[in-house]
């Protein structure tokens, strides 16, 4: 039976039971920016995958809004193309036909009153004919400088406001501003039209299984928590390395750079989940309260000349392929100072984390694609072995492999079989693909479904967004005032200055 949100629940179970598959109630979605890269590669395939898994309501309706002169059929063809290229689950004709029936396209610009009036009429018509029940999510997959126009139009036409039995929500994509002040302004624009509980900000890292597993690892187990503090942890490394370059993304990336692109959101969210205290429950408000607390306590370590590093890739060998540097990539300013690599050192001023540096790094065109979080332990206080027998021993570590090869690894010393007491590092490895037969859903499947279900746990609030900027702003200002990024070769592990940053602390980056 449907609950008060129109969500279908099994009456035999409490609807708080997080094990049950949840199916979205009657609803539809309007995507602005539907011809963009994100919609084509991620959103449309995710919507199909949700439909294919039976998690969307029968009358689910998808309206694309854009400038192209498209008929319903053109839009269907476009979505079909995106689905065949990007869907995770098998193509099923019946599912596709049912989904395609509910597809429509409205042509227009964001400042075009007539187009938005047509959109409002289309929505009303869908409510009358497809049973969408007045429940609509507006997905803004558009540059933030268009948020104001779209929000204004949604307000003017009454689409932003629901009646008592239905809901209206807005889903927004980063970048949420380029510093704290602009994030605040953006939040004001959105919140002037949609109340905060109707705003769903996407940070797709929070939709990843391995990221949600941080909560399970930390709070479902007894094994880790006693060690999860400054008494045992030497430092934490959070890495998001990518091997791809930035060809084709100049419009978005030039002038933005690696820190704004992923540290402000993905990496600081990972830090928050790793470092926060146990929430009272996993209700959105409780989880967000803990994240806000830890983000408030996080600060850059000074002096920034020694505790941060940034770089820009120059041409080099990426595996067996020679690839161009950023300044030669299509569309980039040949004198661009945009950083494609960023690293910084943060501290968390709390009893749990005092004195434990959190090193964050990210980069494009690095040696390998890998995202991971490593907790590196302090040395054991005493080694009762002959120094020669343990010389090769590194620090113990717990490594959460976010992707690829998702899993958790523990590294510790073990006796080498034989007649002497020689100790060497070994790995104990949990891998998702070996432990589970279920395939992980794509992050966007989870997040789109959660937005339709009004399940806000995995969406950062505006407080989190603004606090993340507050952490990053001093670093960005320092970089702005201090010339160009260092160079690093494509295919390498970043600029020398990033290695020097850790060397000064007598530490080294992991080479995953
Ligand atoms: C996006 C960034 O948020 O995340 C991109 O804008 C980056 O620059 C992407 O490539 C990486 O996502 P994933 O899921 O492939 O790690």
From TrEMBL:
Entry-linked Gene3D superfamilies: Dihydrodipicolinate Reductase, domain 2 (3.30.360.10), NAD(P)-binding Rossmann-like Domain (3.40.50.720)
InterPro entries the UniProt entry points to: G6P_DH, G6P_DH_AS, G6P_DH_C, G6P_DH_NAD-bd, NAD(P)-bd_dom_sf
Principal EC category: oxidoreductase
GO cellular component annotations of the record: cytosol
Ligand binding (substrate): 204, 208, 242, 261, 364
PROSITE patterns assigned: G6P_DEHYDROGENASE (PS00069)
Domain Glucose-6-phosphate dehydrogenase C-terminal: 215-510
Any Gene Ontology biological process: glucose metabolic process
Database matches in Pfam families: G6PD_C, G6PD_N
Pathway: Carbohydrate degradation; pentose phosphate pathway; D-ribulose 5-phosphate from D-glucose 6-phosphate (oxidative stage): step 1/3
Record keywords: Carbohydrate metabolism, Glucose metabolism, NADP, Oxidoreductase
Gene Ontology terms for molecular function: glucose-6-phosphate dehydrogenase activity; NADP binding
Reactions mediated catalytically: D-glucose 6-phosphate + NADP(+) = 6-phospho-D-glucono-1,5-lactone + NADPH + H(+)
Residues holding NADP(+): 67, 174
Active site: 266 (proton acceptor)
EC number(s) given by UniProt: 1.1.1.49
Limits of the Glucose-6-phosphate dehydrogenase NAD-binding domain: 30-213
Function: Catalyzes the oxidation of glucose 6-phosphate to 6-phosphogluconolactone.
Family from the record: Belongs to the glucose-6-phosphate dehydrogenase family.
Protein's recorded name: Glucose-6-phosphate 1-dehydrogenase
Lineage: Bacteria, Bacillati, Actinomycetota, Actinomycetes, Mycobacteriales
């Amino acid at each position: 039976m449907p609950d008060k949100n129109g969500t279908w629940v099994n009456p035999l179970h409490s609807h708080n039971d997080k094990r049950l598959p949840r199916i979205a109630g009657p609803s539809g979605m309007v995507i602005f920016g539907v011809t963009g890269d994100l919609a084509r590669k991620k959103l449309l395939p995710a919507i199909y995958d949700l439909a294919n898994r039976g998690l969307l309501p029968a009358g689910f309706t998808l309206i694309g809004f854009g400038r192209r002169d498209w008929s319903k059929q053109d839009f269907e063809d476009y979505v079909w193309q995106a689905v065949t290229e990007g869907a995770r689950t098998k193509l099923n004709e019946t599912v596709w036909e049912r989904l395609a029936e509910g597809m429509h396209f409205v042509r227009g610009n964001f400042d075009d009153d007539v187009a938005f009036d047509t959109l409002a009429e289309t929505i009303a018509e869908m409510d009358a004919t497809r049973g969408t029940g007045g429940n609509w999510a507006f997905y803004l997959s558009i540059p933030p400088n268009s948020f104001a126009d779209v929000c204004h139009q949604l307000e003017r036409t009454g689409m932003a406001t629901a009646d008592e039995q239905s809901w209206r929500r807005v889903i927004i994509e980063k970048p949420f501003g380029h510093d704290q002040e602009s994030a605040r302004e953006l939040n004001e624009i959105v919140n002037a039209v949609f109340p905060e509980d109707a705003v769903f900000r996407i940070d797709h890292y929070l939709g990843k299984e391995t990221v949600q597993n941080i909560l399970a690892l930390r709070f479902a187990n007894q094994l880790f928590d006693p060690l999860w503090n400054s008494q045992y942890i030497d430092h934490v490394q959070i890495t998001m390395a990518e091997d791809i370059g930035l060809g084709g993304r100049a419009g978005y990336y030039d002038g933005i750079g690696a820190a704004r692109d992923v540290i402000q959101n993905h990496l600081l969210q990972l830090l928050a989940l790793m470092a926060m205290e146990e929430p009272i429950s996993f209700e959105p408000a409780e989880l967000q309260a803990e994240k806000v607390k830890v983000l408030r306590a996080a600060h850059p370590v000074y002096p920034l000349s020694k505790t941060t590093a940034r770089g820009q890739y120059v041409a080099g060998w990426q595996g067996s392929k020679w690839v161009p540097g950023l300044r030669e990539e299509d569309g980039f300013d040949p004198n661009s100072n945009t950083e494609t690599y960023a690293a910084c050192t943060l501290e968390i001023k709390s009893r749990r984390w005092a004195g434990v540096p959190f090193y964050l790094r990210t980069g494009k065109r690095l040696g390998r694609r890998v995202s991971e979080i490593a907790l590196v332990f302090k040395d054991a206080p005493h080694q009762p072995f002959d120094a020669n027998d343990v010389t090769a021993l590194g620090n113990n570590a717990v490594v959460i492999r976010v992707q690829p090869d998702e899993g958790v690894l523990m590294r510790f010393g073990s006796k080498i079989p034989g007649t002497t007491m020689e100790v060497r590092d070994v790995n104990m490895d949990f891998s998702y693909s070996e432990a589970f037969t279920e395939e992980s859903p794509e992050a966007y499947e989870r997040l789109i479904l959660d937005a339709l279900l009004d399940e806000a746990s995995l969406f950062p609030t505006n407080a989190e967004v603004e606090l993340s900027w507050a952490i990053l702003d001093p670093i960005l200002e320092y970089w702005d005032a201090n010339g160009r990024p260092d160079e690093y070769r494509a295919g390498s592990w970043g600029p020398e200055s990033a290695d020097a940053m850790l060397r000064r602390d007598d530490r080294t980056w992991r080479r995953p």
